[in-house]
Amino acid sequence: MDFLKNENFDLVLLDSMDICSLLTVEKLGKRFVSFLPFQFSYIDFGLPSAPLSYAPVYGSGLTDQMDFWGRVKNFLMFLDFTMKQREILSQYDSIIQEHFVEGSRPVLSELLLKAELWFVNSDFALDFARPLFPNTVYVGGLLDKPVQPIPQDLEDFISQFGESGFVLVALGSIVSMIQSKEIIKEMNSAFAHLPQGVLWTCKDSHWPKDVSLAPNVKIMDWLPQTDLLAHPSIRLFVTHGGMNSVMEAVHHGVPMVGIPFFFDQPENMVRVEAKNLGVSIQLQKLKAESFALTMKKVIEDKRYKSAAMASKIIRHSHPLTPAQRLVGWIDHILQTGGAAHLKPYAFQQPWHEQYMLDVFLFLLGLTLGTLWLSVKVLVGVTRYLSGARKVKQA
Fold first, then answer.
1. What pLDDT is stored for residue 348 in this prediction?
2. Which of 144, 211, 285, 327 is the most buried (most CB within 10 A)?
3. Stretch 238-265: mean pLDDT, rounded?
4. Residue-level pLDDT at 174
5. Domains observed in the chain
6. CB-based contacts of 227, cutoff 8 Å, min separation 6
7. What is the DSSP track for 106-161?
8. What integer pLDDT is reported at residue 104 of this predicted model?
9. What average pLDDT does range 367-374 have in this prediction?
10. % of the chain surpassing 70 pLDDT
């Protein structure tokens, strides 16, 4: 901490998932911008909230097109998420009490609102459309890099399969923790049914000794994923659904079959399926026959390739690259002394004011009060007229 205090930072870029870095920045008294490493979902990080009627809650498995029961599920998950987030944030109370003096102890939910800017690792070529405040910038594809020629041994392998092309399989850096012998066996058997060649990121040390590698499959410890996705002979990308991998596939217009494991991967694949960019398969249900049929379906059905190319056009049509957007906006707030002009007053309003609940209750009370008074007056007039009629008859 002393080292950081001696550094003259103008601005801090932090991961919104790391609460400790948020408290560190507050202790240093520095301005910061926050980076959301996955798609914009309904989690209260101080970001603007779209209506629950079309903004799916993280982990719900819903799209932006929900029926009645989908909206019920979404609302209940929102309530559950809100309570869980409060529990998570409360676990930092002891740290706050230890490192901040009484009277200047921050409230974590309020610290989240202090971000000058929010950078979201997604793109509307993939994500569901939603309203954004000016201090929220999408920078999905930040890791995009120029395409390089692939090594000759890979080119030679691909050329063996001619017009059939090849399938790229890359399931992330932690695949060794999840890819069991049974899963490898089922996947290898499925690949053997394809007319395409298969390039598979899989270490030799993880390959079961009693499983013979399919003749159309080549495994390697590492593959140049970006360069292979840009290759004209690629037909399919089998991925774990990580955001960076999905964004690379979108960038190059490659259809996907996803095998999501955890965290944001299932949510990413929900969007892939909703945009018709590919199909998702549950790891627990992965069997050779159904896996092979799914891959053939995505390769042969031209709708997937067409949708992937349409998303590629959207992705490439931005006037600025993700890196240019990020650097440009950071430069903007450094020049203007902050982003107060980009933050709406809603950040300072209590939730009942934001959602006009106080106005709704006031108007409801006024309406009910008026109806009650009208009924009372009507009853009173009716009784008076009835009494007057009886007196007249007497």
1. 81
2. 144
3. 93
4. 66
5. 2-142+321-343 (no CATH), 152-316 (3.40.50.2000)
6. 147, 148, 149, 150
7. PPHHHHGGG-S-EEES--TTTSPP----TTEEE-TTTT-----PPPHHHHHHHHTT
8. 80
9. 97
10. 94
